[in-house]
Amino acid sequence: MASSIIIPWIFYIQILAISSKAIAAVPAIIVFGDSSIDSGNNNYLPTLAKCNFEPYGRDFPGGIPTGRFCNGRLPPDFVSEGFGLKPIIPAYLDPTFSISDFATGVCFGSSGSGYDNSTAAILKVFPLWKQVEFFKDYQTKLQAYLGDEKANEVISEALYIISVGTNDFLINYYNFPQRRAQFTIPKYEDFLIGNAEDFIRKIYSLGARKLSLTGLPPMGCLPLQRTLNLKNPHSCSEERNKVAVKFNEKLKVSVVKLMIELPGLEVFYTDVYELLSQLITQPSQYGFEVAEAACCGTGQFETGILCNRHTPNTCLDADKYVFWDAFHPSERANKILSDEMLPSLKLAFQ
């Protein structure tokens, strides 16, 4: 990446961070999960689950395709800015950033990952256990940079954003026979919930106390799922939405259980299902014109490598679309979702 591109991006981050008048309620935002939050870690993997090419990032500061599955910024970026921290959460593996940048926010997420390790294996990306290893490495570097006492304070007071689970169903369970042979959908949900609890216990043991845990979106209404809905073409798959609703109910019960079990743990459940459903079913109320199809290409199936600079018919104004590609919301949708949940997050963790 040429320095002439990198400098304006970093300059933008510094200026917005300095000019922010908000007082940070948390010292850092630390992020785990999948493509809903990955800010570019997959750029450094030999995987198809990456998007470090145009037109991705065309509305990001400097027009940079950072590896975010979006035309611009992701929810953790907006949450960080909303808490008075920097407006960009960098990927841990991005060599243009250092521990001084990561001290106030870092992303360990990997597009294509899930609560199920076998989900990450499909696209050869980082599973949650590897993201935890990155977190351990980060702590060592943070202690060397800030000293043990200050570093431990950052770790215990940071807000941890966790967004994962959709790929377990849409990439893994519905497309490959192994898990379907092992589990019914309810049993697979229980298996994933168990893995989610184990993950939270692990990062809790490493010092995490303030968690924002995101549920599944209305995954049957993603443009790609509408395309694959052969029973009712171009309509939401109600069967897959029902799976998401049931999983989310179990996840909320799990949250209560973990807060009772683990002293000092605070978990804010982010109901992305309800928030995104509102944008999809009432797009005009939020200033959107299209909710059924995405901006990139035909809007029916293009995502990742299929959404590239040569893809024809990509829209000129992504702000009119709820979805950027057939799997991921547009930057404007991400901002609306983040703005909706920020007041509750601040109330929970200030």
Task: Characterise this structure.
The structure is a single chain. By secondary structure, the protein is an alpha/beta fold. The chain has a domain at 29-222 and 241-284: Rossmann fold (3-Layer(aba) Sandwich), CATH 3.40.50. It contains 13 helices and 7 strands. A 5-stranded parallel β-sheet has the order 2-1-3-4-5, sandwiched between helices. Strands 6-7 form a two-stranded parallel sheet. Helix 9 packs parallel to helix 11. It is globular and about 55 Å long. The chain starts with a helix and ends with a helix. Residues 1-23 have low confidence and may be disordered.
Radius of gyration: 19 Å
Structural class: alpha/beta
* Global morphology: globular
Counting DSSP H or I runs of 4 or more residues, the number of helices is 13
- Give the SSE string: HEHHEHHHEHHHEHHEHEEH
Q: What portion of residues belong to β-strands?
A: 5-15%
Summed up, what is this model?
This protein has 350 residues and is of the alpha/beta class.
Question: Which tags fit this structure?
Answer:
disordered N terminus; 13 helices; alpha/beta; five-stranded parallel sheet; Rossmann fold; 350 residues; 7 strands; single chain
Outline the secondary-structure elements:
Blueprint: H1 3-19, E1 29-33, H2 75-82, H3 99-102, E2 105-107, H4 117-123, H5 128-146, H6 148-157, E3 159-163, H7 166-173, H8 177-182, H9 185-205, E4 210-214, H10 223-228, H11 238-261, E5 266-270, H12 272-281, E6 290-294, E7 321-323, H13 331-349
Parallel strand pairs: 1-2, 1-3, 3-4, 4-5, 6-7
Helix pairs in contact: 2-13, 5-6, 9-11
